[in-house]
TrEMBL record:
Designated name of the protein: Uncharacterized protein
PANTHER family: FIBRONECTIN TYPE-III DOMAIN-CONTAINING PROTEIN-RELATED, PTHR35040
Amino acid sequence: MCTLPLAPGIHWKQSYVPTTWAKRNISAVRRDIATYAEWPTNSSNPKLAVRGIFFDETPQQYDADALSYLQELTSFVKGLSGLGPDNFVCVTLLFHPSVICITARYSW
């Protein structure tokens, strides 16, 4: 789990899910996502809730299959309860080191 500082005093807890550059078995990725979404219920502790999913190891170049893969996973995340009110999705964006990267909310 990681916390994104959105602004001073405001943090967004989200869970890490690797995609292996959109090549990881999508059923395995869905299981990881579902596990995180079920934490508040399975633990009987709502404080374990996360507000979204951070997809790591995402492709660095456009690929139609990878886009479809990430769209399907994003739809899956958005359809779950247990991930907070917004079901936030974040992906890894890789840039040249001299480029400033700003984390943003994505709706594929």
